[in-house]
Amino acid sequence: MSDEEKRRWIKPTTEKPGSGRSITERKVIARNARTESSKKWIERQLQDPYVRKAMDAGFRSRAAYKLLEIDEATQILKKGQRVIDLGCAPGGWIQVALHKGVGEVVGIDLLPVDPIDGARIFLGDVNEPRDVEKVLAALSGPPDLILSDMAANTTGHKQTDHLRTVALVELAVDFAIAHLAPGGSFCSKVFQGGTTKDLLTTLKTHFRTVKHIKPPASRAGSPEIYVVAKGFKGNRAHKGETE
């Protein structure tokens, strides 16, 4: 699997939520501690209150709190919704969606994800039509909400990293426009200056409201923010009509 394919920063864990550090995790920490950069990463993780909160609450990643905070500000998660999570590993956002009482959740990722009760999770690629068909077929109807926390591996070159991330956001936006139910919502990670002008125009054409949000759980030094679009215009937007 190439770096471009590894869209998630964290590998799924097989340990039970809230069970403390597994033997495997301790071995990984010991191995990573051989380099200064890894030491700094480990120190930051150990000092991060959201990491501890996630472990105590049984969430698979601290990213769960990003979605919880996004939802607190935008109310995108609703009971009974059909939800698709693009780039769902390790499953924290799926856990939050289920916690909020959505009706159906389907996730897809290039990396394997341990099963989550109440969700359907596929190992696959959003670029592959057959994988997309499987995801859509797992729902009883069109999704009401599409989530994407996909992120390309960083290279350290800001322009390259920005272009890679924009490409993933564009992929998620195209997916949402093609498959969302009318009135549906979309939430995706973006970086640096947020969405590009063209992408923002596309979102405003197809959704009634579009806003950017930086949840408190997103580290202050991180360039990530999230775009939330609500009120998908459905078929009328596909035809280029306006309200």
Structure, described:
The protein has 243 residues and is an alpha/beta fold. It has 2 domains: 23-57; 63-238, Vaccinia Virus protein VP39 (Rossmann fold). The protein is built from 9 helices and 7 strands. It has helices at residues 23-32, 36-47, 49-57, 63-74, 92-99, 129-137, 158-179, 197-206, 235-238; strands spanning 82-86, 104-109, 119-123, 145-148, 185-191, 207-213, 224-232. A 7-stranded mixed β-sheet has the order 3-2-1-4-5-7-6, with helices on both faces. Helix 4 crosses helix 5. Residues 1-29 and 237-243 have low confidence and may be disordered.
Topology:
Elements: H1 23-32, H2 36-47, H3 49-57, H4 63-74, E1 82-86, H5 92-99, E2 104-109, E3 119-123, H6 129-137, E4 145-148, H7 158-179, E5 185-191, H8 197-206, E6 207-213, E7 224-232, H9 235-238
Parallel strand pairs: 1-2, 1-4, 2-3, 4-5
Antiparallel strand pairs: 5-7, 6-7
Number of domains: 2
Largest sheet: 7 strands, mixed
Shape, principal axes of CA atoms: globular
Could you list the spans in which at least 5 consecutive residues all have pLDDT below 50?
Answer: 1-29, 237-243
